[in-house]
């Protein structure tokens, strides 16, 4: 393309851009405007999607979002007949501990559960040991004892009522409830 054609093309485009930049928006155009500030016809016509740039997230904000996401994971699973917290749940518990330390007015209930094997009395005691184990783990990370309470449901309220090994594994748990 030679310079004359380019110059002529610019003379046609520039006034259109100036008019669209200065024009007011009617209600129908407002309704057709997408979240990025362009209308669907503008996006389709020019093939370029414009709009805001994704905000830059500070490292602190990234960490807060990570902890917020991890707190959605509030179930700690246990091995058969055990109340020991497995290392695989360390990140989840760190997120909960960091949140609770930062928000000392927030309280959490730690519920302990077991599978259906064993006597009801034994399972209530095992559920309590599991809840206490999580409590001690969180205390070791600086959470105040006054922020935590425990309850044991034993084999009551199973997550899975079938009697398979997979169901039993789902029922051996502690849940952090805010």
TrEMBL record:
**Membrane topology type:** Lipid-anchor
User: What does the UniProt entry say about where the protein is found?
Assistant: Cell outer membrane
Indicate yes or no for the key word Transmembrane: no
Instruction: State the UniProt keywords alphabetically.
Output: Cell cycle, Cell division, Cell outer membrane, Lipoprotein, Membrane, Palmitate, Signal
Q: Which family does it belong to?
A: Belongs to the Pal lipoprotein family.
Q: Where is the composition biased (Polar residues)?
A: 36-48
Superkingdom of the source species: Bacteria
Give the residue ranges for region: Disordered.
Answer: 25-52
Q: Which organism is it from?
A: Shewanella surugensis
Underlying gene: pal
Report the protein's function.
Part of the Tol-Pal system, which plays a role in outer membrane invagination during cell division and is important for maintaining outer membrane integrity.
Q: Where is the composition biased (Low complexity)?
A: 25-35
Signal peptide span: 1-21
- Classification via InterPro entries: Bact_OuterMem_StrucFunc, OMP_bac, OmpA-like, OMPA-like_CS, OmpA-like_sf, Pal, Pal_lipo_C
Q: Name it.
A: Peptidoglycan-associated lipoprotein
Quaternary structure note:
The Tol-Pal system is composed of five core proteins: the inner membrane proteins TolA, TolQ and TolR, the periplasmic protein TolB and the outer membrane protein Pal. They form a network linking the inner and outer membranes and the peptidoglycan layer.
Stored CDD domains: OmpA_C-like
Instruction: Indicate the segments forming the OmpA-like domain, all copies.
Output: 65-178
């Amino acid at each position: 393309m030679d310079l004359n054609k380019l110059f002529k093309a610019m003379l046609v485009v520039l006034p259109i851009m100036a008019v669209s930049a200065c024009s007011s928006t009617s209600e129908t155009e407002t309704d057709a405007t997408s979240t990025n500030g362009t209308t669907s016809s503008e996006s389709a016509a020019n093939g370029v999607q414009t709009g805001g740039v994704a905000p830059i997230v500070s490292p602190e904000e990234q960490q807060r979002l990570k902890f917020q996401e991890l707190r959605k994971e509030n179930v700690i699973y246990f091995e058969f007949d055990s109340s020991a917290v497995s290392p695989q749940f360390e990140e989840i518990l760190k997120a909960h501990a960091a949140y609770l330390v930062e928000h000392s007015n927030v309280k959490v209930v730690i519920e302990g559960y077991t599978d259906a094997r064993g006597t009801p009395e034994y399972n209530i005691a095992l559920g309590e040991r599991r809840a206490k184990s999580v409590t001690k783990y969180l205390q070791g990370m600086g959470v105040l004892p006054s922020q935590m309470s425990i309850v044991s449901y034993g084999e009551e309220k199973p997550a899975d009522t079938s009697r398979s090994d997979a169901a039993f594994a789902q029922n051996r748990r502690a849940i952090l409830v805010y």
